[in-house]
Amino acid sequence: RNLLDMDTFSKSDPVVVLFVQVSGSSEWKEFGRTEVIDNTLNPDFVRKFVLDYYFEEKQNLRFDVPPGFHSALFGPQDFLGQAFVALGEVIGSQRGRLERPLTGVPGKRCGTILLLAEELSNCRDIVTMQLCANKLDKKDFFGKSDPFLVFYRSNEDGTFTICHKTEVVKNTLNPVWQPFTIPVRALCNGDYDRTVKIDVYDWDRDGSHDFIGEFATSYRELSRAQSQFTVYEVLNPRKKCKKKKYVNSGTVTLLSFSVESEFTFVDYIRGGTQLNFTVAIDFTASNGLPSQPTSLHYASPYQLSAYALALKAVGEIIQDYDSDKLFPAYGFGAKVPPDGKISHQFPLNNNMENPSCVGIEGVLESYLQSLRTVQLYGPTNFAPVINQVAGTAAQVTDGSQYHVLLIITDGVISDMLQTKEAIVTASSLPMSIIIVGVGPAEFEAMEELDGDEVRLSSRGRYAERDIVQFVPFRDYVDDSGNQVLSMARLAKDVLAEIPEQLLSYMKTRDIKPLRADP
């Protein structure tokens, strides 16, 4: 709208070029171009760009508006402007419609660019399937194996991303797993011929699960099970190389497979659901004195602390889906001025009435300020801040608000029983909890809270939904010291489950998205 007029004898002939930033780098790659529209300052472009959308990634886009090109007599015209935007901002804006000013021509108003995003229908299908296995390899010394399956979708660069884990079936070589549902997008990103890899593991309490074997398939192949059983051989490549007589490590049978269309995460966001982001940071003494380089809270002039990196990685993506950009931020496990009392939910901005900070930068500022004013102490209690956010989430349960609590900790938890009770209670509310562990500690307690393999329970009550995602930050640190890459890797894994967790809440409550205006 209202583009600069660069032509002498007529109006400009604009075209839009879309560039996509390569994840974890500053490099931009051209993705595509619209058609050229002659002689107008208010073009409506017809050609669409079809992009893969990942909630868990910061997908930066750049729209350049160069001129169209005339005959050799005139040569190329001057640049008309550009706009930078994250794909999440477009999807998170009202009705998937975002208007941005064009910039890049000094001293001139370049007009605006209007972006509209809509979801393609092949992403709406959801699959329900059930599998069983037969004669799996025995891995346990005193009993049979405790098998579970891990599903991976293949990415375009040849890598694999975990998209589903089944439950563990204890002490059997012939397990029958419960039916489960998974979106087609999560399984193969809508590409029916893309490889789906499935690993079979024997569960071990200490987390060092034994690999039994693997097999590969595709959505198209799986879907044939609607009319027939499909049997896959489970193969262990190491055993196959070592043993001449090796046949397989068992078989997996697909018992059933059905497809139905369902509401998507984007439907709810476009219908007005807001993501509310709350941060809780560990201020216990086990982190070390913030002024010392060995401290997990230490930030040099050249490098952010692991706490600050985790906060930015997660917060900068979630903020695109929160219209007011106000984020409550708390600390726990410190002695707080003026009276030096120990607190497990003190506001980082020192405002008990309104603990919200403006934007992720505001949270970072308040965090650094708190490091200078409080005394790191203990113990490490999660329950108070989980109950605080759960209390807020319980006030609005109609699907218009969904809460995400980020807890960043060095992992030595003191109130495990109370925390389990708080999570089980929160599992029926519109909220998710992300726990990022920093430092070298062992995080067995956090793995238990995650509940991916064994559903979390407290005093005989089981969590209604899996709402906790835990990751150790050290697994994502880039060896070359590239912090942008470390943050991108971390965000990709910790946020990947949020869309499904939101959908599981909406589904159990039979909440349908509000219709976005056309």
TrEMBL record:
Domain VWFA: 276-477
PROSITE patterns: C2, VWFA
One Pfam family from the record: Copine
GO molecular function: calcium-dependent phospholipid binding; metal ion binding
A GO-annotated cellular component: plasma membrane
Domain C2 intervals: 94-232
Biological processes, Gene Ontology terms: cellular response to calcium ion
InterPro entries named among the record's database cross-references: C2_dom, C2_domain_sf, C2B_Copine, Copine, Copine_C, VWF_A, vWFA_dom_sf
Calcium among keywords: yes
Keyword terms of this UniProt record: Calcium, Metal-binding, Repeat
SUPFAM superfamilies according to UniProt: C2 domain (Calcium/lipid-binding domain, CaLB), vWA-like
UniProt key word Ubl conjugation: no
Domain of life the protein comes from: Eukaryota
Record-stated family: Belongs to the copine family.
UniProt name for this protein: CPNE9 protein
